[in-house]
Structure formats: C-alpha cells, structure tokens
C-alpha cells in the first residue's frame, strides 16, 4: 500500500496553477491577436500550459482537444488572467481526418494561421510480446498521423501568410527509450523525423522544431505516482527521486508552464535558426551517464 494518497501526490507533485508571472513574454512583432496558433491537447497538462503561455504573448489560440469541458476551463483561465491573447475551444478528435480538416479551417477563420503546436498524446505501458495493437495504432494516429495531417492542412495557410512554424512535443523517449513503452518510443522517434521533414521542405519560411523533456509535473504523472510506488515497493518520494529524476541532474520535475515557455521561444523570431532541431530540456537525462 503506497504511503501517499492520490490527493497527496497531486498536492506535492502535481502542477502549480499558472500565473502571469510564470509566462515568458517575448518581444516579437508577430505575437499579436491577429495571428493564430493551433495547439492540440489544449484541455490538459502541457497543451493547456502552452495555450496559456502563447495567449500570454498576445496570440489567438485555437485550442484543439476531445475534452470539451477542459477546453472551456482553459478559455476561462485565459480570461481570468486577463491575457492579451485568448483561447478559442475547437473540439475535435485527432483520430478523425474530417475533424482535423474542419478544426484547421475553423482556426484559419480566427486570423492569420502561423503556428502549430502538436502536443496531444497518451501512453500505454506493456511489454512488446503483449502490446495491444489497437493501442499502438491509436497512439500512432493521435501522436504521429495527426501531427502530419495538421501540418498538411496548415501548410497552405502558412504559405499564404508568408511564414509558419510547427512545434512538435517530443520527449526524452525520442532520444533514449525505456522498456514497455514501444508505441511511445516509436512515435517520439518518428516525430523528430516529421520535424526534420518540415525543415527540409519549409525552405526557410516554414520552420519545424521539437521539444524534448523528461517527466513533467502534470496531473496524469502525479496521479499515477502511488500505483507506481506500490509496484516498485518504494515510497512516493523515493519513486520521484529514483524513477522520475533518477537519471537526471535535476532535483525537481519540470512545471508545465516551463514547457509552454519553450514553445513561446521556439515559435518566436528569436529562434529563427531553430529549424529541424530539438529543444532538449531533460535535466541531463539523455546526455549524461553516471
Ligand atoms: P495530458 O493527458 O495531460 O494531455 C493530453 C491531452 O491530449 C488531453 O487533454 C487529451 O484529451 C488530449 N487527447 C488525447 N487523445 C486525443 C484525441 N484523439 N483527440 C484530441 N485530443 C486528444 O498529457 P500531458 O502529460 O500534458 O502530455 C502532453 C504531451 O506531452 C504528450 O505528447 C506527451 O507524450 C508529452 N510529454 C509528456 C511528459 C510528461 O511527463 N507529462 C513528458 C514528455 C513529453
């Protein structure tokens, strides 16, 4: 039996609520409400934080998710914070091609579509020999096929507007792998291929980059901590130190807004030479050894 309840784990290791002071505000003439960023997975975790950080820089966000209530909450939070930009909910299922096309068309109605953040995702943990193929397909549909379809649908708008940037939420699992996450590992490695393909074909005016982090303090990660501790016969604190942070040089997991701020930087004119590359912010996990 774990030494901490789910509520306790959420309080200690869950995300802190985003305030305006958390948002990195950059000086960029394109960061204004006439320009639109599509953000997928915007109802929760990293997608929610990214939508708020980009709206905090004045952009109009088309927040895509299947979770309608979650999207409504993010729109309210953006208004409560009195951000210079706003979040418009666009309910869509990223496994559905028609939904994707309709969502991009709706986003383009909001202004000049210039940015796409592919963040929506999900996880399944199982050994290869038992890996459920329907979950493998679902994860590839949401995390690899949808980013391509969205990029494809956004491309003509980027060309029409003279520029575009696609940011893909990757992971340390796009660089190194852990066992029992074969679908996640293959998806994240593949996303880096998509990112580089965008750079190759974007010809300088359309850029692509990816963001790779270790564990982030999302609700999902915090809620799973007691079970994770139980299965390892560890305390929750030890699980965080040994499993989430064990291979890093960090003392704390990253906050979702810190990831959102990487998209703020990557989309901005200050990152004009970031093209095809990965913003690795994993506390040293993939680049150090003992
Ligand atoms: P989360 O579960 O909090 O958010 C994921 C969102 O994606 C949810 O709102 C969900 O409704 C949405 N989504 C899932 N399937 C969808 C579909 N078919 N159509 C539309 N929306 C759908 O997860 P998170 O932890 O914020 O992770 C977001 C991304 O960040 C994922 O790609 C994940 O791989 C990556 N990531 C997370 C961590 C971490 O520690 N949390 C670390 C590295 C990378």
Please, what is the CATH homologous superfamily?
NAD(P)-binding Rossmann-like Domain
Order of helices and strands: HEHEHEHEHEHEHHHE
The radius of gyration over CA amounts to 18 Å
Which term fits the overall shape? globular
Widest β-sheet, arrangement of strands: 3-2-1-4-5-6-7
Low-confidence stretches: none
Terminal Cα span: 31 Å
Structural category = alpha/beta
Classified by CATH, the class is: Alpha Beta
What about the largest sheet?
Answer: 7 strands, parallel
**Structure annotation, total helices:** 9
Question: Would you give an account of this structure?
Answer:
The structure is a single chain. The protein is of the alpha/beta class. The chain has one domain (19-214, 255-281): 3-Layer(aba) Sandwich (Rossmann fold), CATH 3.40.50. Helix content is 45%, strand content 15%. It has 9 helices and 7 strands. The chain is globular, with a radius of gyration of 18 Å. The structure holds nicotinamide-adenine-dinucleotide (NAD). Residues 41, 43-47, 65-67, 70, 93-95, 119-122, 142-143, 169, 171, 213, 215-216, 218, 220-221 line the site of nicotinamide-adenine-dinucleotide (NAD). Nicotinamide-adenine-dinucleotide binds next to helix 2, helix 5 and helix 7.
């Amino acid at each position: 039996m774990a030494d901490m309840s789910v509520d306790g784990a959420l309080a200690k290791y869950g995300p802190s609520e985003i305030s305006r002071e958390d948002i990195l505000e950059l000086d960029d003439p394109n960061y204004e409400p006439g320009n639109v960023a599509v953000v997928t997975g915007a109802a929760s975790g990293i997608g929610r934080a990214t939508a708020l950080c980009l709206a905090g820089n004045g952009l109009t966000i088309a927040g895509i998710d299947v979770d309608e209530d979650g999207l409504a909450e993010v729109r309210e939070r953006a208004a409560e914070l009195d951000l210079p930009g706003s979040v418009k909910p666009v309910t869509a299922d990223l496994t559905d091609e028609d939904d994707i096309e309709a969502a991009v068309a709706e986003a383009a109605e909001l202004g000049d579509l210039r940015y796409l953040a592919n963040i929506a995702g999900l996880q399944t943990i199982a050994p290869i020999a038992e890996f459920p193929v329907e979950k493998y397909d679902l994860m590839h549909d949401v995390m690899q096929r949808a980013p391509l379809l969205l990029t494809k649908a956004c491309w003509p708008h980027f060309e029409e507007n003279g520029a575009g940037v696609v940011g893909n939420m990757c992971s340390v699992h796009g660089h190194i792998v852990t066992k029992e996450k074969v679908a996640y590992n293959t998806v994240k490695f593949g996303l880096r291929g998509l990112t580089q393909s965008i750079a190759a074909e974007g010809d300088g005016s359309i850029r692509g980059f990816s963001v790779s982090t270790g564990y982030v303090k999302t609700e999902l990660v915090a809620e799973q901590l007691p079970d994770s501790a139980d299965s390892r016969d560890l305390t929750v604190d030890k699980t965080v130190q040994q499993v989430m942070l064990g291979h890093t040089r960090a003392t704390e997991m990253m906050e979702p807004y810190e990831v959102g701020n990487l998209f703020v930087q990557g989309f901005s004119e200050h990152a004009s030479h970031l093209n095809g590359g990965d913003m690795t912010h994993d506390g040293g996990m993939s680049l150090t050894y003992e």
